[in-house]
Amino acid sequence: MVETELPGQGVVFWPVGTGDSTTIVLGEDLVMQVDLRDMKAADEDGAVVAAVIDRLEETLPQPDGKTPYLAVFALTHADSDHCCGFGDLLESSILIGEIWATPRLWRELSEDKPMCEDAQRFQDEVERRVDATLKAVEDGKEPDSGDRVRIIGYDEDRKLHSYADLPDEYFTFPGDVITKLDGTDVADRFEAFVHAPFKDNCAGDRNDTSLALQVQLKADDATVGRLLFLGDLAYPIIKMIFENSEAAGNADRVEWDVLLSPHHCSKKAMYAKGGDGEEELKQDLLDQLQTYASPDARVIASSLPFRDKDEKGNNPPHLLAREAYESITDYEVLCTGEYPSKEEPRPVVFALEPGLGLELVDVTDLENKAHALHAAGGSRRLLAALGTTRLPAAAFAAAADVPHPRGTDAARGGVQQARGDKAEPAVQIGFGAA
Question: pTM for the whole thing?
Answer without folding.
Answer: 0.87
